[in-house]
Design a protein that fits this description.
By secondary structure, the protein is an alpha/beta fold. Helix content is 40%, strand content 21%. α1 runs parallel beside α2, α1 (29-42) packs across α10 (279-286) and α6 (166-178) packs parallel to α8.
Length: 381
C-alpha cells in the first residue's frame, strides 16, 4: 500500500549534525502550508492506488504546525485519497514542543503515532548537538505523551558522539526501556559536509567522531535491544513485536510513496523524483496560475534495471527481509549470478548468511551494511 510523506521545512534552530533541508525562519510557514496543499492537489494522480497505508509528517520540525494547519492537510488528503482505518499516521516532534497543551491538540487530530527526536537524555550530548530541548524536557515529553494516551511512540537516539561514553549510551537505552517505548531508532553520529559539525571538526573546534567508538556502541545497542525483546528489523530500527514502522518499512520494501514539500522525494516503481530543496524556489513555483500546468519544481530519474537491482540490494541487506533470489530473477538475466558471486566472501567470513533463497547480514556484518551492499552493486551500462 502507498503512503504520503510531507516535509515541513522549518526548525527553531539548526542542529550541528543535520544536513536535512529546513529554514530557521518561520515567516513563510502559512504560505508553505498553502503551497503544499496545492502540490497535493496537483499530484494526487501520482499514486495509482488511492488507498493509503501511512502518512508521515517529517522535516524539519512538523511539531511546529498548529492543530488547524494539521487539519487542513488531513481534510485535503481525505478529498484526494482513501485512508485505511488502521493507517499509521506519524508526526515527528521535538521534545520542547510537546507541552501538555500541544499533546492535547495532537490528540484531537488523526495523528496516532509520535516520532520524538530525543537523541540523548544527557545535557552534555544535547548541547554538543545544539538541540533545542534539554535533558529535563527529554523525559517530560515522554511522560506527558504516555499520560495522554499516546502509547504508539518511537524515539530517536544518537550514539558515537565524542560526548557519549559507553556508560551514558547504555543509560540512554535503559531510560528508553523504562518508558516501555515500543519503537526505537538509533543512529551513529555522522559528519556530513556543509554542517556546523563538519566545520567545527575541520577547524579543530570539536573532537572528531571515532568509528571504533561507534562500532563498539553499535554492538552494545544490538545486545541491549535483543535482551529487551526488540527486533532489529532494519539496521537502525528496533521494535517490539507488532510495532514495525509501517511507513518506513514501505520504503525498504520498495512500495510507492508521494513526497510533498521542498526537498521531498517520491517513488512510483519506475522512477524517483525530488522537489527543489529551497523554500523560496518552491513557493514561487507553487504560486503559479491556478489550473495551469504542473510547475517545474522537481527533478526526475528514470530507474534502469541496474538501478532497481542496486536499490533492492542496498535496502534488502539492511532489513530482516533480506535479499531474495526470486526477486533477483525477476529483474533480469545475470543479476542472481552476480549477487551470488559477490556475497560469497561475506558468507565465508561470517558477515552474511543464507537461509534457503534469502540472504541476510549477521550481527558481524550489520555495522558494515553499506560497504557490503556496495560490493554487490552492478555498474551502470
Amino acid at each position: 500500500m502507498p503512503g504520503i510523506y510531507l516535509h515541513i521545512p522549518f526548525c527553531k534552530q539548526a542542529c550541528h549534525y543535520c544536513n536535512f533541508h529546513f529554514s530557521t525562519s518561520l515567516k513563510y510557514k502559512a504560505e508553505m502550508v498553502e503551497a503544499m496543499l496545492r502540490e497535493l492537489r496537483l499530484r494526487q494522480d501520482y499514486l495509482v492506488d488511492k488507498e493509503l497505508d501511512s502518512i508521515y509528517f517529517g522535516g524539519g520540525t512538523p511539531s511546529l504546525l498548529t492543530e488547524g494547519e494539521l487539519m487542513r492537510f488531513f481534510e485535503e488528503i481525505g478529498k484526494c485519497f482513501t485512508l485505511r482505518p488502521d493507517a499509521e499516521i506519524t508526526l515527528e516532534a521535538n521534545p520542547d514542543d510537546l507541552t501538555k497543551e500541544k499533546i492535547a491538540a495532537l490528540g484531537r487530530t488523526p495523528v496516532n503515532r509520535l516520532s520524538i527526536g530525543i537523541q540523548s537524555f544527557f545535557e552534555e550530548d544535547l548541547r554538543f548537538f545544539n538541540r533545542a530541548h534539554n535533558a529535563r524536557e527529554a523525559r517530560a515529553c515522554l511522560e506527558e505523551a504516555l499520560a495522554a494516551g499516546f502509547g504508539n511512540l518511537t524515539v530517536d537516539l544518537i550514539y558515537g558522539s565524542p560526548t557519549t561514553s559507553d556508560a551514558h549510551w547504555e543509560e540512554n537505552m535503559r531510560i528508553a526501556f523504562g518508558y516501555e517505548i515500543p519503537h526505537v531508532s538509533c543512529y551513529a553520529l555522522t559528519v556530513e559536509e556543509r554542517t556546523a559539525l563538519f566545520h567545527f571538526i575541520k577547524k579543530g573546534q570539536a573532537p572528531p567522531v571515532e568509528e571504533e567508538q561507534a562500532a563498539r556502541q553499535f554492538d552494545l545497542l544490538v545486545a541491549a535491544m535483543r535482551g529487551h525483546g526488540y527486533i532489529q528489523y532494519e539496521i537502525s530500527n528496533f521494535a517490539l513485536p507488532g510495532h514495525f514502522a509501517v511507513h518506513n518499512a514501505s520504503y525498504w520494501k520498495g512500495e510507492p510513496y508521494l513526497g510533498l514539500g521542498p526537498s521531498a522525494h517520491s517513488y512510483n516503481g519506475e522512477s524517483r523524483q525530488w522537489n527543489v530543496a529551497n523554500n523560496a524556489s518552491y513557493l514561487r513555483a507553487m504560486h503559479g496560475p491556478p489550473g495551469g500546468p504542473l510547475p517545474a519544481f522537481f527533478e526526475i530519474e528514470h530507474l534502469t534495471p541496474a538501478d532497481r537491482y542496486n536499490e533492492y540490494v542496498m535496502t534488502g541487506l539492511r532489513t530482516i527481509w533480506g535479499v531474495g533470489l526470486d526477486r533477483l530473477r525477476e529483474m533480469g538475466e545475470g543479476y542472481e549470478r552476480h549477487f551470488l558471486e559477490c556475497i560469497r566472501p561475506f558468507i565465508e567470513n561470517g558477515q552474511a548468511e543464507r537461509a534457503g533463497e534469502v540472504f541476510r547480514l549477521t550481527d558481524a556484518g550489520k555495522f558494515l551494511a553499506d560497504g557490503i551492499a556496495a560490493a554487490a552493486f552492478v555498474s551502470a551500462p
